User: Fold these one by one.
Assistant:
Number 1:
Amino acid sequence: MKDLKVIFMGTPDFAVSVLQKLIQNTTVVLVVTQPDKYVGRKHILTPSPVKVEALKNNIKVFQPEKIRQNYDQILNTKADIIITCAYGQIIPKEILTYPKLGCINVHASLLPKYRGGAPIHWCLINGEEKTGITIMYMDEGMDTGDIIKSAEYFIKDEDNVGTLHDKLSQIGAQLLIEVLPSIINGTNKREKQDNEKATYAYNIKREEERIDFSKDGKSIINKIRGLNPWPLANFLINNEEMKVYNATFKPQKIDSVSKVVVADKKSLGISCKDGIIYLNKVKPYGKKEMNITDYLNGIEKDKILNCKVNG
């Protein structure tokens, strides 16, 4: 496949494994990624992870602000196929119809479930038992194209967004390389998606990061897993935001929800609908992440015991 000329379009860490596999197995003639962004408190102009990988391999990089308005460089690059993975912009028809082998996307869900930009987050938040990768042809819709091949992954109890992100990235890269020969010779399967079974994974909104302790414990743990390590689930305690990396749930009868019911040297527990959520690792407002014992050692526990959260 080394003679296959590829344009790759991607931006975040998730896409780097796919690009690396393509560099090893094909000839990547152009990488298209999002413009550099100012990051952090010091506003340092930072390239995307995909750009860093491309430049490391001496591959030309194109970074249009708006791909719908600026795509001539892509059309002027001789390529057999365009492969995308978490690029971050809607790709216009002029690009989709350009390469002879089509535009192929690597998507982090089992389509038609979880179309959109945050499939890893939402499959965990919703408590799915499995997720996976779909290799698909692109069309003008959002993740609506024909499915070429899928690979399932059964979610483990210890998985969070970070671990699942890394596992699916590797699965996606390998699955793409396995299916590429059939795309080249035209023997690949092409299955229409059942739109009636479609669900959507829109990007997480700020207000959706807040933990609702009136819900059941399993749902709360799923939300914490589904937002760890970014953007992190949070709640308010004494009107200050506390972010949560991980927690455990113990079912028991509860008199009232959303209240600190345990605050001793080793444990901080908050009541929910059907038990207590024990925080394990947190990030208090204005401080670094820490284990709950370190947090408890630095506060007056009497001031938070029986305190209502988010109130």
Note: DSSP finds eight helices and 15 strands in the chain.
Number 2:
Amino acid sequence: MNNRLYPINGPIPSPLKGSISGTSPYDFDLEKARRLLNEAGYPDGIDPSTGRRLEITIELGSASGNIRQMMELMADMFRKIGVVLKPSFNTWPAFIEKMNRRQAQMFQLGWVADYPDAENFLQLFYSKNESPGPNHANYRNDRFDELYEKIRTMHDSYERTSYVQEMVDIVIEDAPWIFLYQPMQFGLVHDWVQNYAPHAFPYGMGKYRRIDASNRSEWLNVHESTTLDLGGN
């Protein structure tokens, strides 16, 4: 992705409280993966009930070039431990329908925060938010739920942060998600657009922006004449 992504090591992205820096909890470790497969009852990736390779279908909400390349890479990684990863490409409406009906063995999905707080991400693991709610992993953990019900009404404090960290540890240990990345955000703005500031939560900010009409007209005149000169040459 040409360095347009940051690796993410937990359910909460940087720079929010609860984000984890440093080494990923799920390092690329083929020997560990083979050992865990054996412990789970699939020695060398073989399903003992059928004698065949373990097959996992991953549901996807797009068939774009990036998604296809990512799936090829992931399938190759799974192949190294004897597991077959089969991508299932869907239209976005069909994908969401499968999520809501719990018809996915495995899936890839992202989340765009509504507000800058860890709770907005931790809600994705709260059992009462199961599908068709945002907890599409349909994850349940009683201790996590207990802590979530505490933090969602607490003000920012050391105690709240400690609860958040415990919740993050629970999610990492139970692994309902495999954490991939958070994207780098880009914005291109003309200098005749005023009152614009880069912001991860720009909702409703449009009403504050202004257009410098004279600056814009000057810019358009320059670029239109440049286009004409180039065309003439």
Note: The two ends are 37 Å apart (CA to CA).
Number 3:
Amino acid sequence: MVNKNEVLLSIKDLEIAFGEGKNRFVAVQDVNFDIYKGETFSLVGESGSGKTTIGRAVVGLNPTSKGDIYFEGKKINGRLSSKERADVIRNIQMIFQDPSASLNERATVEYIISEGLYNFNLFKDEKDRLQKVEKIIEAVGLLPEHLYRYPHEFSGGQRQRIGIARALIMSPELVVADEPISALDVSIRAQVLNLLKKFQNEQDLTYLFVAHDLSVVRFISDRIAVIRAGRILELAETEELFKNPLHPYTKALLSAVPIPDPKLAKRKILTVYDPEMHDYSVDKPVFQEVKPGHFVYGNESEHAQYVKDLQATEK
């Protein structure tokens, strides 16, 4: 259940840069958003847009060069004491994109899932630990006998379920799901999405869901932020974004969503986004709310046009 009064994660003026001097590359800049408790907030953009970089910064894997990340009101980027860092690791878990690369091939499934329990001493005794592991493995649709096998003995979909079990056994507050279904067959994707939704309903989980496919996030998201070249261009509730896309890049992404009907697909016109279409030489752009809950990046004249477009669609 989404609680709009309770902000779980807040990102303020975030910048993430790599390298020094002439080699310095700014991967993410001026990123601002809040995630409410119980919601699924999706970051959508093409490869290299910075969405995974933000997700990795939230769990502490990427350092930040400017701005703040707050979790439950406490700043979690920058220097933290070992106890504060342990709290972040315990309460913010990540499901990685590649289920093959993110699991230790030399460890059994039972050990992979138990590792967090060992590290944080989250069990009373050996019997309690095994019960927790068996319960979570069954919850993700695998069998207790799978616990004593190794990751290479499983399919991609099964490995991703093991990754989900490893994250959720920690009872986290927030899960960063980094393209958790992009490496999977289409037939398995719906199962994994349904699994994530099921856990959210049962455990009141909050997700930061990273993806490049708008059609996937429509099913699972409460709100969507569209990101390109390290900058968020549009943010709105899911149905609002699909019904009233304002930024030309969002429109281009939506036009690329496949249509299952071949006749309709033939008539579809693809929109190509050209960043040169914006003139920001004098009138500088800002990320601004044009309608309650609907934010767009643009300059003053563009915002005026976006408001007109919204008024025209609402008549």
Note: The longest strand covers residues 3-18.
